[in-house]
Amino acid sequence: MKIGILYDMPRWEEKNLIEEGKKLGYQVTTIYSKDFVLFSNEFNIENDVNLFIQRNISHNRALITSFLVEQLGYPVINDHMTLIRCENKIFTTYILAKHNIPTPKTFIAFDKTNAMEYSKKLGYPVVIKPVEGSWGRMVAKADNLDVLYSYLEYQEFSTQKYKDIYYIQEFVNKPNRDIRIFVIGDETPVGIYRVNENNWRTNTALGAKAYPLKIDEELKELALKVKDIIGGFFLGIDIFEDKDRGYLVDEVNGVPEYKNTVRVNNFNISKFLLEKAVEWVKK
Amino acid sequence: MVNLKCPICGGELTVEDDALPGELVEHECGAQLEVVKQNGKLSLRLAEQIGEDWGE
């Protein structure tokens, strides 16, 4: 079995995938995106593989390299359509909402005045997020109209790709944690609580601590339903716990990081992923 | 181990023989560098800054 890893920066996860793949007896090759060139009339690449695993840290490189290897006829985890649905928060939220998956109340505005007007309807505080972004970067809570106006102005003059599209969400009064649950194939083997005592944003990139997640039946069912809607094979789903409404799906990650999940659960995600991916590709 | 030169200060640093392209190393001068592999030879260049589209 030959596995290809598409990557642009070898983090712990990529190195661990290479190591575990070798331990399983697979031939593991790596494609470094910055060295990857593909002519449109040459539908082959140097290293033939049975399957690619997408691990680019850059969303743009992930999306395009997944797309290109799919055009060459290779299966890839995750495919570019899944990445499109995951990496753009508007797509994720509205696709999930359309399929009756509980999500935080959100609206999209294309104009600052509308953004301010409709935020009153949502009720303060509100949260403004970049349409595309990660690690909690530039996610901000506005306690009132005045603060929101400042954020809208900052966004307008930023270099964000969607700087004139405003993604505004209710502030979910969750405990000091959220849930990250992993879907691998048709299973939900592991997850973490991300607890942040100092910041309402619970990204581990912002200092949240990881603790093992107790996966109940409801959570498992919800995660698998999200996977059926979003697609893909390997997802990291972020879920809030609302006191009154229960689980609310916040985001879905198409190239999830999992170093902390492995550490606190003592669960080998790379091995599990590789074995399930090989089963899948053999079918 | 391979001995390489920091492209910023010219100082020396070593990386593993099997270092992957894109791997990050920090030189004592403070430069964040990434490994480049061309024609089988390793070298270093200034690392790419965190992009807006980076992350999970």
UniProtKB/TrEMBL annotation, chain A:
Keywords: Amino-acid biosynthesis, ATP-binding, Ligase, Magnesium, Metal-binding, Nucleotide-binding. GO terms for biological process: lysine biosynthetic process. GO terms for molecular function: ATP binding; coenzyme F420-2 alpha-glutamyl ligase activity; metal ion binding. InterPro entries: ATP-grasp, ATP-grasp_RimK-type, ATP_grasp_subdomain_1, LysX/ArgX_preATP_grasp, LysX_arch, PreATP-grasp_dom_sf, Rp_bS6_RimK/Lys_biosynth_LsyX. One of its GO terms (cellular component) is cytoplasm. Pathway: Amino-acid biosynthesis. Its cofactor is Mg(2+). It comes from the Archaea. Residues 93-278 form the ATP-grasp domain. Belongs to the RimK family. LysX subfamily. This is Lysine biosynthesis enzyme LysX. It comes from Saccharolobus islandicus (strain REY15A). The lineage of its organism: Archaea, Thermoproteota, Thermoprotei, Sulfolobales, Sulfolobaceae.
TrEMBL record, chain B:
Gene3D superfamilies: 2.20.28.160. InterPro entries: LysW. It comes from the Archaea. NCBIfam families: carrier_LysW_Arch. This is Lysine biosynthesis protein LysW. It comes from Saccharolobus islandicus (strain L.S.2.15 / Lassen #1). The lineage of its organism: Archaea, Thermoproteota, Thermoprotei, Sulfolobales, Sulfolobaceae.
